[in-house]
Amino acid sequence: MVKLDHLENGLTVATDNIDGFETASIGLFVNIGSVNESDKQTGISHFLEHMAFKGTKTRSALQISYEIESVGGFINAYTSKEVTAFHAKVLKENIKLAVDIITDIVQNSVFDESEFKKEQGVIIQEIRQTNDTPDDYVFDMFQSKCFDNEHLGTQILGSEEDIMSYKPKDLDSYLKTKYSTDKMVLSASGRISHDEFMDLANRFTSDMKKFDVDPVEKQTYRGGFAFKQKDLEQTHLILGFEGLSHTDENKFDLSVLSAILGGGMSSRLFQEIREKRGLVYSVFSFCSNYRDTGTFGIYAACEDEKAAEVVDLANAELEKIKNSITDEEIKKAKTQLKASLMMGLESSATRMERMASQYIHYGRITPPSEIVEKIDRISIDSLKKIANNIFSSKPTLALIGKGKDAEKLGELF
After folding, report:
1. Predicted structure pTM score
2. Fewer CB within 10 A of the end CB, N or C, for the chain?
3. Contacting residues for 73 by C-beta, under 8 A, at least 6 apart
4. Is the dihedral of CA 320, 325, 329, 334 positive or negative?
């Protein structure tokens, strides 16, 4: 049973008790990500996430990991465009420890100078690894071109120059001016007593405060063409368009449309580009939703001299789907979407994350039955309408590889 509460300090607490579970997943989700950074703060949200594990007023970096791992649990974190999350999974008898450590690393990080310098090196290696991985790098290129000169377009990791310019005081200041309690959700799923968890939340977050945080300017999709020449065996590309925001009622329609186009081996793109023509090993479509807007994209990797053909074939499939969708395709795509939702309910970590994300984006927790109902209402007409709206907008193409057809493709954008 899902329960939602609010502490006097402004922190939101969500729990989801699952009878029969012997474990619990706990997470502190902060509605702050790279989109909240100023031009001089690129990568600082992610840097702060790293440094949270490098020591607090009462625990060393080793103690943080040792205490969780000694009881068989694990702890981790991630930074996205709009959210930073710190999460752990433990046996039910160790819930108190997990709450203690997660809230400790968020509230009491000391940003030790020696640990800070070491972590600068770690993040620089992470940046270089991404830059050396074309199927990762092309997504950064795509995002940057979709939101050129917007905070949604900046890289979450930042640049090497950004990371080396920061001092411990910069991260401390960012924490104290961004991590307000009304931007946070403490979420837990598994064998959880709501009342006991509320007591823990009150105990371990009593020093957290609510304060004003600078609002984020509305983010605007721009689109266009981006190319990076690199001597690779394959060309990696993403063709995309402006998508939908978290709160857009049509976002499930777009997810169904994406499943039909590129949601598996039986999808249109996979069958047309890989199975019939053998042009790629990997091709798929995806949707990303943000506060103000979103993206829809098609990723593929192919021989350099085949890039233009792959783009042409992808565009042809987008044109076809504007006017030609079958009942069978819709039924299969709906089933895929609902199956993914239901399978996620079997994971306490997924349930914990969904609760927090839904509250952050919608101000409420959406029952699975409500989502299923919205999926069931999707029709051929609603899909054709969203396809015509999305795929008639200004496109974006990101390309990394030798670039034989780059000039030709660039002229289309």
Report:
1. 0.95
2. N
3. 88, 89, 90, 91, 94, 97, 98
4. positive
* Rounded Cα–Cα distance for residues 282 and 81 (Å): 25
**For residue 87, what are the CA distances in angstroms to 38, 65, 99, 279?**
26, 13, 9, 40
Q: Tell me how crowded residue 225 is: count the other CB atoms within 10 A of its CB.
A: 16
- Three-state SS for 241? strand
| Active-site residue, from 49, 242, 317, 353 | 49
Which residues make Cβ contacts (< 8 Å) with residue 333, sequence separation at least 6? 256, 257, 259, 260, 263
**Distance (Å, whole) CA 288 – CA 33:** 15
405 vs 408: CA distance, rounded Å: 5
pLDDT tens per residue across span 336-386 = 999 999 999 999 999 999 999 999 999 999 999 999 999 999 999 999 999
Average pLDDT over the chain reads 96
pLDDT at position 407 is 86
Q: How far apart are CA 205 and CA 186, in angstroms?
A: 10
From the list 110, 135, 12, the residue with the least C-alpha distance to 55 is 110
Q: What is the dihedral of CA 147, 378, 311, 306, to 10 degrees?
A: 130
A 10 A CB-CB count for 56 gives 21
How, if at all, do strands 84-91 and 74-79 pair?
antiparallel
pLDDT (tens digit per residue) in 173-204: 999 999 999 999 999 999 999 999 999 999 99
CA–chain centroid gap for 54, Å, is 24
Q: Is residue 249 among the annotated active site residues? A: no
Return d(Cα 214, Cα 212) in angstroms, integer: 7
